[in-house]
């Protein structure tokens, strides 16, 4: 899937939610309601559930979906086909203090690495039952979702023809629609 000159880090490993955990049960609920075809219902907080946990489970799920979708078009998203992707006025603030000019594949690699680092941080996304999310959790999740939106935007803007050739447009459109309903 990846061409020889590309970094193998572009397509991130799937972020797993531990089986048997409460988050896993929430993910199964989300998948079951998604299966009903009613995306508006699928994004609703299940009765009696913790909002932060619901946001966390869905954020991980969107990371995995976008990761998979982008992974199918990495051979078309290269330094030469997508030489620039603007990050806007901000960088990630951690490793990249100031915005840098870089190709779309490098930008997406930086973005997805940053998101994965956030998801792997137990102080931000606790995987243990009963551990509270930090006070700034919703703000962190919003930043992650805002940045994941940029990957959807790039796929639609630069690679929709490839998505159609791969016959993945229904999956991309459903994933994006689910994402938009959730962030609203």
TrEMBL record:
Signal peptide span: none
Keyword Methyltransferase: no
Lineage of the organism: Eukaryota, Metazoa, Chordata, Craniata, Vertebrata
Entry-linked InterPro entries: MOB_kinase_act_fam (IPR005301), MOB_kinase_act_sf (IPR036703)
SUPFAM superfamilies from the UniProt entry: Mob1/phocein (SSF101152)
Gene name per UniProt: Mob1a
Protein name listed in UniProt: MOB1A kinase
Pfam families on file: Mob1_phocein (PF03637)
UniProt keyword terms in alphabetical order: Kinase, Metal-binding, Transferase, Zinc
The UniProt record lists the keyword Cytoplasm: no
Annotated residues for binding of Zn(2+): 77, 82, 154, 159
Alphabetized GO MF terms: kinase activity
């Amino acid at each position: 899937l990846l061409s020889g000159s590309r970094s193998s880090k572009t397509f991130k490993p799937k972020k797993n939610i531990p089986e048997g955990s409460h988050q896993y049960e929430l993910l199964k609920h989300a998948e079951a309601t998604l299966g009903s075809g009613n995306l508006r219902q699928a994004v609703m907080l299940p009765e009696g559930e913790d909002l932060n946990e619901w946001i966390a489970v869905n954020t991980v799920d969107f990371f995995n979906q976008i990761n998979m979708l982008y992974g199918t078009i990495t051979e078309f998203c290269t330094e030469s086909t997508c030489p620039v992707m603007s990050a806007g006025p901000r960088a990630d603030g951690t490793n990249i203090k100031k915005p840098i000019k870089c190709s779309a594949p490098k930008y997406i690699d930086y973005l997805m690495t940053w998101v994965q680092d956030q998801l792997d941080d137990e102080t931000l996304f606790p995987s243990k039952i009963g551990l509270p999310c930090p006070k700034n959790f919703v703000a962190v999740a919003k930043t992650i979702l805002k940045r994941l939106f940029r990957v959807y935007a790039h796929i639609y803007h630069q690679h929709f023809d490839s998505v159609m050739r791969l016959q993945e447009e229904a999956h991309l459109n459903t994933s994006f629609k689910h994402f938009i309903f959730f962030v609203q």
